[in-house]
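Per reviewer request, we include the raw input and output of the structure prediction for the construct analysed in the revised manuscript.
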Amino acid sequence: MFRKAMSLALSEAEKGLGKVSPNPMVGAVLIKNRKIIGKAFHKRFGGLHAEAELIKSLPDKIIKNATLVVNLEPCSHYGKTPPCSLLIADKGIKKVVVSTKDPNPLVSGRGIRCLENRGIRVVKGICREEAIEVNRGFFFAQMEGRPFITIKYAQTIDGRIAFPGKKRYRISNFSSLIYTHTLRKYHDAILVGIETVLTDDPLLNVRHVDGVSPLKVVLDSGLRIPPESRLVRNEEKGKVIIFTSKRTGKRKIEELIKLNIRVEQVDEQNGKLNLLQTVNKLKESGITSILVEGGARIITSFIEDDLYDDLEVCISPKILGEGIRATADHFKVPIRYENQMRLLKIKNISNDVWLHYRKIKTINIMEKI
């Protein structure tokens, strides 16, 4: 019964996708006499938490002596809303079932202790792995201080991601394109380099599937982005950040700011923008997960700087014979066990093969939750 209810709570939680970050997605379900009598989710950042939404929707007499199922430990501190743990206790709920503790230092077991100190039985660990995966960005940002980073690219059998030069060529099929847009909606931000913008003039939004478009991030050390590019002139331009060098002139920056484009300056390191500063600034803006879509120089740089957690690699049954590889032929990566990858999943999407890898170091971090 608890696993079924928790699966429902996780489904409820995902309704907050793209609307609650940097908060976690949380769903709550109430059980009484072995029947589900209510469900709710955290709807927006700064709004009522899932537990409070659920309690608000039901009469007190129904809530009393019921069991609450929630995918994350109820909070125990005053933030934008009062503590959910105190509200739960005040309403006479007799049992609380949670998937995981909340790694936020303001909570981190205090919510569970608050409930237990008031005589409420707490059952922990139900659907734990599924719950961590739903909120992997939140968990990772809390534990490591940076967003969870996924690198995604499509390549041919012979390892090419594009023709040489500016010639455009779609590597993957349309079904894989739909999957790519699904990946986008599960991330707070999507990041590309200026060469991708100059070559493809992308929108970097969510299409083909329902979902909220992520923040669009462009690394552009010389601020070469054309004012006529679709990222600058489209209706979502308020959701674009361009990172450039501290050496970039004020005039170029001011021109983009007038067009409602946010520009951030970071240091340069070894002839490229400092990626750690970049992702830290994104975290300060509430970003907990980033999808890196390239191009090759950007992908190589993130791997070189050890700033990645997942790889989503599409292998399309084509041969180009010449072209650009996803990574440079020679780049330095520390060879140690923690930096190796574990294959999590293989998908066949209309004859494209998708390989989903996760770094061993990231797996070890997530297992501490």
